[in-house]
User: Fold this.
Amino acid sequence: MTVVSAVFRPDHVVVVVFENKDYSDIIGSPNAPYINSLASQGAKFTQSFGRTHPSQPNYIALFSGTRQGVADDSCPVNFTNTANLGSQLLAAGLTFKGYSEGLPSTGYTGCSSGRYQRKHAPWVDFDNVPAASNVPFSTFPTDYTKLPTVSFVTPDMCNDMHDCSVSTGDTWLQNKLGGYAQWAKTHNSLLIVTFDEDNFSSVNQIATIFVGEKVLPGSYPEQINHYNVLRTIEDAYGLTPLNNAGTANPITDVWTGGSDPVVSGRTYSLRLSSGEAMDDPNSSTAAGTQLVVWDAHGGSNQSWVFTRNSDATYAMKNAASGLCADVSGSSTEAGAEVIQWPCTGNDNQRWSLVARGSGHSLISKHSGLAVTAGAATDGSPLTQTTDSGTSLQTWSLTEVG
Assistant:
């Protein structure tokens, strides 16, 4: 399975936006078991951020690439002939709908109705998105093949976690979109779960998760925000990036291609561009030995047997020691040692191969961090650090034996 360098084109994308919760309120929380199950099935972004406070400008930013000068939740705001994701999709011959829970009728433009709030439905603000694209969530199809190309979903003020608990929103997501999430995994489609903002902190870190057939499961440490998500959707359909999305990087490292970069059960050497290879020093057979880089010589202590796991990650067993590459102590901290240890199949021994130019980063499923050499010199130890695509994190794989 090759991680491709461009965004794939899903048949359908559904974006659901929840409200005002810190990353730590969701990820790892016992109050959000379903969202955390999605995070384990898909791509979990560990450095995802809202753009501002309060809610409305975040929604507008996600939908149009800029806050359009909006700095508060005042309603109504109206934009004339202003480009946005919905208008882009329609102009390209594709389809868009915004599904709002509690919307009293199709095309409704009022600021509120019961627990519905227009400030969470940015497509209503743009006159080039037709009224027919602004629909109640009650019309969300149960036959998912009838979904538009891109859908935005906004739960009401209770189910979006704004006025009610995290567990309320988590249960709502499972009940209302759990079927789509599983369907997307076998029908070339994508579910994006995100939040508008955190709970008004200066950090503004939020949970963002991608789930779908072409999504490589794992934790992804790159910093993203609403503009990166918008840019990714635009790139998927060949649309010109809008406003700040034009300078935001699309998310490209979470997609799977059609073939494996390695063949499960075969043996490979892993080398930096400088020529040093991943090495079990002195062919040690001791559990806990920290791995290093050393001038490539083709020995068995520089040979690694790759075994593909069911979650599309790999175990890497050293051919000399019979031990597996492992994050010491199951640490999630940058700087933790990469060692060899008896093979357990645990997440700290599961590695994703993420394409980086002519090579790959090795990303720990457990921590989301990359195997990194301290320097391109003999004996330099391997640790895990934030994946930034440097030459000390980029490995070429060559089959040996």
Notes: Residues 1-5 have pLDDT under 50 and may be disordered. Residues 214 and 262 are 18 Å apart (CA to CA). The first helix runs from residue 23 to 26.
